Amino acid sequence: MRAKIRLLPDGRRLHLNDGPIDLIIEAFAEPDQTTAAYRAAADRFVSVLDELCEELPLLRQPARRDSPRAFGVIARRMQAAVAPYCERTFITPMAAVAGAVAEEILNTMTSVTSLSRAYVNNGGDIALHLTPGESFSIGMVERPDRPSLFGKVKLRSIDPIRGIATSGWRGRSFSLGIADAVTVLADSASTADAAATIIANAVDLPGHPCVTRVSARDLAPDSDLGNRLVTQAVGELSGEDISAALDAGAALAQSLIADDLICSAALHLRGATRVAGSAQHSPRPTRPLSAPSAIMILQE
Amino acid sequence: MPVADDDAIRCDACPVLCYIKPGRTGACDRYANSNGQLIRIDPHVVLDRALSRGGSVVPFLDRNRDWDGNIVAGSGTFVTAIGAGTTYPDYKPAPFIISSEVQGVDMVTVVTEGIFSYCGVKLKIDTDRYLGPETNTVRAQGEPVGHVTTSEYGSQMLSLGGVRHLTGGTRREGTVTCETLLNLCERKPVELTIDEGATVIVEAGKPPIVDGAKEERMRVGCGSATIGMFAKQWHGKVDEVVVVDDHITGVLSEHQAGKLLGIRETGIEMKGRRSTPGRYFRVAEPGTAWGGTNIDDPLSILQEFDPKIAWPKLRLLMVSTTGEHYAYYELDEALRPVEKELPAALIESVTRITENCEPALCTVLFMGGAGGSLRAGVTENPVRLTHSVRDALTRVTCGGAPVYVWPGGGITFMVDVTRMPERAFGYVPTPALVAPIEFTLKLKDYAALGGYMDHVRALDSILKDESRRHLSANPENPWPLPENKSPRSQP
Strand A117-122 and strand A211-215: pairing? Predict the structure, then answer.
């Protein structure tokens, strides 16, 4: 079998890997329930990549109102997540793939067992499960060598947040913008993923000479971004440049909040941060910071 | 693997079937196109890699480079930490804890990459040319990355990096410092500019280029020492020799060596401050011309000859400490020096000065410290590792290369980057350098210091993974494991 399924050495978390999909999962329940949940997650996981790849050509096409409907449940979730944006901007369903996969595995676990809490972390795009009275502490870590948090937020079961996603040009996927990172909290991982992608694209300085852009296809011939120019390097930016770029992204984030598509967003560029939405639900920086290096689920 | 039209190859490791361009990775970041070959660049499943994607924290997962996993020599194999990954920031056992048997003794090597956010490099630049005033700022791309320290034995020392430049200044200062350190450690040329001083291109193991001039040679000694070394060879062939040096300019007729040979007084009058007979300080300002001074015309450091002592046709040689600059004069009737062609009899002595100068090189020492959390990857009781290194029970290596561990607290070490395998360093955007570090000790000592015994793996289990790259050990390095009867033993 291609997929790798194992418990991490801490004996608590499950690690699932197949091709580019890499999940860290933790469920909180009675031990037999956790085992059942992990078994269900693994059973579902092994066919996920094949399913997605069957429909890859469609999922790499720009989303349109009249796009053919995908067949698979994850692919449909991806289409649904990007649908609100397809008329205002360029987006393909691939923008939501990580969140949609995390969501699917989380749903599989919660449908077969009774878990008090659980998360599925797909490379920083996280799907959360919380039963009444439960909560997760979410931290953003700026520096991996100094595990101090710069932003921390407690998500309670009454909060309408079940998904967290981060996007930026420094990440593994290409970005059309220059944000170091945009972290979005939303009601599901797939919606957070799609929104983080377009907000990160909007944090931009079109035509700025210090931004190096390369055709996505020159880097990866089969990229869903086609010949669009993706950010490869960002040179020195003035304070005004940074403000202008963040303003553009924050304006979009505000409009998505107003349309009830996301709960909040934190935008990071060159040590400056802009937070849109409810302060209560936003990871608040405690000091100037650069790109968040990681999102962590904190143990309590 | 099918090859597409544009040199991209199609990866068939999973159904995504990425087309991968040369030098790039597929969507998984694990398979890459290395000159048309599909290679796996991340043979380990590193813990918590999912945490890394938000800001690309863990560079060993996404560095597009060949795998430098092992050093192999003869019958012995040593697994370096290059590309091994790290368990930072978790206080977990290091990625590899490998046991091997050497001459019947069970040894263990703890292999990890460290993230060094307080590290620096010490540069020794062999040049007499003036680089800049002590303590002045050294810049790269306009950002302060270090400072000029002392001048010692014909070399100029620079100290770059450290916690203040990496993390204490602006974001850009930190990023540029990190990039500068990385490039120096990776043996790439780096242009450094010194405030009120020179621009120097530094590359480990190569001659420095100071203000566009490549430094060929390191002076044989100061001006005074040069007089001492060559006085006998000049005796009888020339009446006076001045060895021009920014530090100590030597004058043959006044120098002890000249006196011993009975060389006659010449009435020469030097500028600068006389230290002891025949030795002058500050004959000119420091610079990048003759002997590390700012002069292009050597006569500018002379005053008029004393007419009571000097004589017409007096033969004068002026030469720099490297022999790179020289000029020959004879005094006219008015006792003014007139430049003449260097007589054949003197060519040999000038050539010999040049021959005795060693090649001028730049030396780059990486200096890092194994902090508490890195040591915690080795043992549950990190201070015991420090004690074990102090007591010489544990050997520290950096990519298999020997290190010098500073006395005093902590495990602070220096390593000559040219003794390390290529592409041994990486960085994280925090900014900090990633460097390999290995701790080798006896298995029983490892157990005694609270090591992670249940994580010890046999060497064979590591070598099965064919994606590791095998390198020949640098024969100039001592073998990192205890020496046995292997023929490659070093004295």
Answer: unpaired
- In chain A, where are the structural domains located? 4-298
The pair phi, psi for residue B384, each rounded to 5°, is -70, -30
**Across the interface, which of A8, A146, A220 has its CB nearest the CB of B24?**
A220
Which residue range is the domain that position B18 belongs to? 1-40
What superfamily would CATH give domain A4-298?
Answer: ApbE-like domains (3.10.520.10)
Q: Do B55 and A291 touch (CB under 8 A)?
A: yes
Cβ distance B129 to B288 under 8 Å? yes
B202 within some domain? no
State how many domains chain B has.
3
- φ, ψ for residue B154, nearest 5 deg: 80, 10
CB contact under 8 A, A144 and B20: no
Between CA B365 and CA B124 the distance in angstroms is 8
- Specify the pLDDT at position B119: 94
Q: What is the pLDDT of residues B54-89, one digit of tens each?
A: 222 222 222 333 333 333 322 356 777 776 666 555
Contacts of A122 in chain B (CB under 8 A): 50
pTM, 2 dp: 0.49
Judge whether B139 lies within some domain.
no
Residues B328 and B373 in one domain: no
pLDDT at residue B47 tops 50? no
Residues 10-39 of B with CB under 8 A from A: 13-21, 24, 26-29
Residues of A in contact with B88 (CB under 8 A): 144-145
Tens of pLDDT, residues B437-481: 889 888 899 999 888 888 888 776 766 554 555 565 666 667 777
| pLDDT score, position B197 | 93
Backbone torsions φ then ψ of B52, nearest 5 degrees: -90, -15
Together in a domain, B377 and B321: no
